[in-house]
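Aggregate trends can hide what the representation actually does to any particular protein. This step matters because it turns folding into a mapping between discrete strings. For completeness, the protein is quoted in full, as a sequence line and a line of structure tokens:
=====
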Amino acid sequence: MKKLLCGMAGCLLLLSASAQQKKPAVTPVSAVPVKTYASIPDSVTGTSATMAAWLVSHSENKTALLRSLYAWMSSHINYDMVNTFQPGYYKDTADAINKTLQTRVAVCEGYASLYMDVARRAGIPAVLVTGYPLTGGRPDNASHAWVAVQLDNEWKMIDPTWGAGSVINNKYTARLNWKHFLAEPHEYLKTHVPFDPLFQFSEYPLRHDEIRDGKWGGGTDQPVFVFRDTLAAFSKLSPLAKSENMAARIGRFGVTNQLISAELTFLINQLTVERQNANIMEQNRVADQINECSRLYNRLTNDFNEYVNFRNKQFAPARPDQEIREWVDGMSRQSDDVERKARKLTVTDQGNRRVLMEVLEANTQLKRRIADEQAFVGKYIKTGKMFRKSLFYKVSF
């Protein structure tokens, strides 16, 4: 998974990065009416699951739940200045969530990942959105991550990182800013541009060149983009298919800055790795099936060898005729099963194919011997018991 770099502008510069120390008391922006929210107790903040469970039982509705989570993160998660430009800091989303909860410091991906995870666990559809910030209409120097949530079938934007405070002249100011809570996607686009236009949540998404040129009324010259259906289909795709889908869509909407170019390059490289992994997984899957065929053949071989020992002893100790018949007929069915399973396999790897052909050839030879024994047992059963012993001797002249 690609690790995101959060731009310095608008992110958090903290005086302390202690895992246990809370940030200075925050004050709501005066231009926005004071909002009320529940205070999440420390005892439930060890995991996303316990936080979500507490919020569900202590919130009057989903909006209130999201508000309380937003406020909690602003006062309990410090911005991680040390790892701001360390793209390998988070291994994946799960790692971002765990590190954020354990250390109580995070960069934007940690903020967004934790917020998304708690929201999802509370039953609220949420996605982590990656893109680039706009400052004064121009892209910042690093990518960013925020969250989109769905309330009453409408998507809204939340940026728990920018909502926690800001940096002005290299000085951090801790301030709970509600401007970044439940923002309308079309308005938020002027400061938060998703790499993938799907996450503009618009029937007329803007191309990156239109955004660059400030053509906020653009997009209407294109066919209607049914983003709800596309998003529903996208959510069901495999990781490989999602990467392919995103890369194609980002490419179609234009590469107008280095951040988009870097994201597209990352996706293309990721696709190469995922295809290689998918190929390895497929080869391993086929190898497992070939091994299963080999296992069945080896079990059949052991059964046949046991039968041969029984025949070499002239079917002693005696067994009922029907039991002997079922024995050889059962081996024939086992051989058919080996062949049927082996023939169904599509093998492209040369090594796997060689092993499969060896199994098939050995099974074919054994099948002929089993057929001979079926004929012998049939003759044995039809022969009177007084003359059966003679069937075990070959007479040559």
About this structure: Residues 280-385 form a domain with the Methane Monooxygenase Hydroxylase; Chain G, domain 1 fold (CATH 1.20.58).
